[in-house]
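Reagents: none. Just compute today. Nucleoside 2-deoxyribosyltransferase.
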Amino acid sequence: MGIENTSGEKNLVYFGISKSNRKNFDQEIRIIEDSLKRRNYELLVFVDKYNFELGQENEMMRIAFEEIDRSKIMITELSKKAIGVGIEIGYAKAKNIPIIYIKKEGEKYSTTAGGCANHIIEYAGAEDLRTQLEKIMEQMNV
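Predicted 3D structure written out:
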């Protein structure tokens, strides 16, 4: 069961990342989860929670949009091009959900993600990610 706010709703943060790139981000996800937990937020990594087969595309996107709707913030990682994550970003932007775009230094920059993001973190390593994320969370009063 997730952490809940005083109204009984979960304080969710949706994490958008491609399934193929997810395996490269265990350390970063642990850091993000730790930072959020201390602020009573729960990270939802969509590709970890759900698994869909070919032919279930409509169901996948319906559930992704429902989870984004329930989220207070979206964090995205786009070191590798991911059309699905781009669609999720556009949906969150249309719903006025704050977006934090993270990328490792030296990785390709997504102009579309950057153009939608409220905050951009370009980090050198795990501790740099933690420091920058903490600063942004303070700015957002989270």
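The chain is about 45% helix and 20% strand.
Action item: order primers for follow-up constructs.
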